[in-house]
């Protein structure tokens, strides 16, 4: 949307998160290039593409665990490398792996994560109750099913204050009912001015969704 | 606060070490096995054993430390917690340092405390007990610090095999030399201050730089 009061800045500049000409090359192979996107508060971006097209790579790039081969990511108009702490402080990344220690219980895992992120948490609410894991919260994670593990790692979404959520396949392994709850959670986050960037193979019916479509690696050659 | 990360990781890793009690005793069992084998393979004569004891004890300690290096970052890398640590808006230095300190507490520290017992089994002369403990306390800490760098560098390699020992071994050598030297000096009735001072300065140096280098290596490895 155009900001009429701030006419000197282009609409792109006023966006909170901008992906500018991102490209990634590994071992001579160009995985993707010219990724451009501007995201405002309250918007959701879905990254689409077949397996191996670089969805996870792009997510990791946005969460700063991978640097782009070329291009840059701007957060509130500044390159994320220059505002690293501020940017990392406002993002939450849930990757491919659960980020849970198998020999610790869901409760202990979450407690650890809370301590690490303690400047960035909502005041309370029992996250494990929200994801329906109260009954097994003291069981070591290696006894949990794939769906329960995913729930345990998604529990972080209920207690974080991070504005930008980067979720890699959050809907995998979870049942329909919880998928609906998760969708509601994402919608609430968007209504509160948050941003969600995710990959999923599900059809999410969330309004005003933005898309990045990555081509299959073989076609792009 | 910079040390929230340090404290959180320190406590979690310690808790994990306690959960995996079995792994805790590995270096000690390894040490014990070799100590039992040496008199059988070489000579049970205590006068000859006491000659090789300082060097032997130190070599075993070094190998025990080497054996336990793999696990330093590998588990965190595999289950994604390393990624979670690396995207925290805090310096990675302190969090890597926390992991190194725990690694030392579960490998080097128990070995150092048990060293007099092992020394006795190899007929180490009595004046060597305390210097052995002191040199091991400092030396194994330095080994853990150096090992963290190698461990971080070889992280993405699934089966790094002997690459890790090859990388860290050259850096381990001075510690072996001054460590066993300390014990030998004490047995010969010389002052142990100078070899201990060298070991202390090595420890101080690597305490400062090793977590920094390891953090950089981790970033490279995770990008890989």
Structural description of this entry:
The complex is a heterodimer of chains A (221) and B (224). Chain A is an alpha/beta fold and 221 residues long. Chain A has a domain at 41-64 and 89-213: 3-Layer(aba) Sandwich (Rossmann fold), CATH 3.40.50. Chain A contains six helices and nine strands; from the N terminus they run βββαββαβαααβαββ. In chain A, the strands form two sheets. A five-stranded parallel beta sheet of chain A has the order 6-7-8-3-9, with helices on both faces. A four-stranded antiparallel beta sheet of chain A has the order 2-1-4-5, with helices on one face. The longest helix of chain A is centred in the last third of the chain and has 16 residues, at 176-191. Chain A is globular and about 45 Å long. The model of chain A is unreliable at 1-13 (pLDDT under 50). In chain B, α3 packs antiparallel against α4, α7 crosses α11 and α9 (129-153) runs parallel beside α11 (193-223). Chain B has helices at residues 3-19, 21-24, 26-41, 46-67, 71-79, 81-86, 92-106, 108-121, 129-153, 163-187, 193-223. Chain B is mainly alpha-helical and 224 residues long. Chain B starts with a helix and ends with a helix. Chains A and B meet through α2 and α3 of A and α1, α5 and α6 of B.
User: Total number of β-strand segments of chain B?
Assistant: 0
For this entry, what is the oligomeric state of its chains? heterodimer
Proportion of beta-strand residues of chain B: under 5%
Named at the architecture level, the CATH assignment of the domain at 41-64 and 89-213 in chain A is: 3-Layer(aba) Sandwich
Strand content of chain A: 15-25%
- What general outline of chain B do the C-alpha atoms trace? elongated
Mean pLDDT reading of chain B: 90
- Secondary structure class of chain A reads alpha/beta
Helix content estimate of chain B:
over 70%
Q: Class of the domain at 41-64 and 89-213 in chain A in CATH? A: Alpha Beta
**Residue windows where pLDDT falls under 50 for at least 5 positions of chain A:** 1-13
Task: Give the end-to-end Cα distance of chain A, rounded to a whole number of Å.
Answer: 36 Å
Please count the helical segments of chain A.
Answer: 6
